[in-house]
Amino acid sequence: MIIGCPKEIKPQEFRVGVTPVAAREAVTHGHKVLIEAGAGIGAGFSDADYIEAGAEIADGAADVFARSDMIVKVKEPQAGERKMLREGQVLFTYLHLAPDPDQTRDLLASGCTAIAYETVTDRSGGLPLLAPMSEVAGKLAPQMGAWTLQKANGGRGVLMGGVPGVGPAEVVVIGGGVVGTHAARVAAGMGAKVTVLDRSLPRMRYLDDVFGGQFGTRYASAGNTAELVAQADMVIGAVLVPGAAAPKLVSRAQLSDMKPGAAIVDVAIDQGGCFETSKATTHQDPIYEVDGIMHYCVANMPGAVARTSTLALGNATMPFLIALADKGWKQACTDDPHLLDGLNVHAGKLTNYAVGKALGIDVLSPNLALKA
Ligand SMILES: NC(=O)C1=CN([C@@H]2O[C@H](COP(=O)(O)OP(=O)(O)OC[C@H]3O[C@@H](n4cnc5c(N)ncnc54)[C@H](O)[C@@H]3O)[C@@H](O)[C@H]2O)C=CC1
Ligand SMILES: CC(=O)C(=O)O
Ligand SMILES: [Mg+2]
Hints:
2 domains, Rossmann fold, 7-stranded mixed β-sheet, alpha/beta, binds pyruvic acid, binds magnesium ion, 8-stranded mixed β-sheet, globular, binds 1,4-dihydronicotinamide adenine dinucleotide
């Protein structure tokens, strides 16, 4: 199979979908790997690194899209990239379709088979291809929130850890999964007073057992959420209902109960965001203000630390990439129901129920797509 990897074109996105290590593995398995010239530079990989791994360097994205059986990326295909996808071609990348009707329309029209990293599952109910980037974004969230809290950035002027005689910042994390846990650990490590809200009692039991001394937990009822958000210097949004649009848990009206200059970091923005006032921003222009509250809503936070993120994502995607290349998508998804959970689009049909529900589009059962 020919595996193609274009350079990412989303603003300030420096990650790359195929590492030299993954390229070498695919070549060892008898596949051809086409990398767009310069695709790895932002993550610290030169074209020479890929050539040494046995890959071929392509002149531009058009060449990669035209010649490849499977396109492997990081971010959802941008409008220009979507025009280059074709029927029968496999796309393996993050998609986040639920809040993105335009992308969904274009992928359906292309006839391609699109497998989304963020809905591939594992045996324990986790999301193995989302987890590494959630670890990164979770660890980045308090760092970006602390920056947002600085006076020059419109924030409240509060230091995370306080100083002797002056109390720390109060940080509330909504959603105690992978993002939330990593965010809470880092915020607590910076000296902030941290509370994690979640709706899953087993998850809160786990957090309390493991991190009980470092941060607290509260059940994410509307009442508890409103009370804690009003007291917070920083609120980090980290909820997820896999595939679905994020539930809106903090309304615009609630902003007026918050402390002026408090910071919202909505990591869940890639699924539409969990604050009514969230809208996606970029690394170039990451923050904006609504009713005196500063919002940081970058939808590709891990791109800021592209080297770490690319290596972490590559570790997780490589076994799936090799299975897809060795067996073809149908056999790979037949053999692995967790990979089949990643199938979002096939031959003009949507194949993920949560996405279909969010967008009001009929869904073809993934099992039927395997037989189509
Ligand atoms: N902006 C960015 O660059 C990035 C964004 N993300 C996003 O961050 C979000 C969180 O991802 P993960 O932590 O990996 O998900 P996860 O599945 O590990 O955790 C989500 C948590 O939210 C909880 N939850 C669900 N509904 C809730 C509600 N109504 N109230 C309170 N808690 C609720 C769940 O019980 C779960 O513990 C996702 O939208 C993901 O796509 C992840 C990586 C990068
Ligand atoms: C998960 C995701 O959207 C990202 O890493 O950019
Ligand atoms: Mg994203």
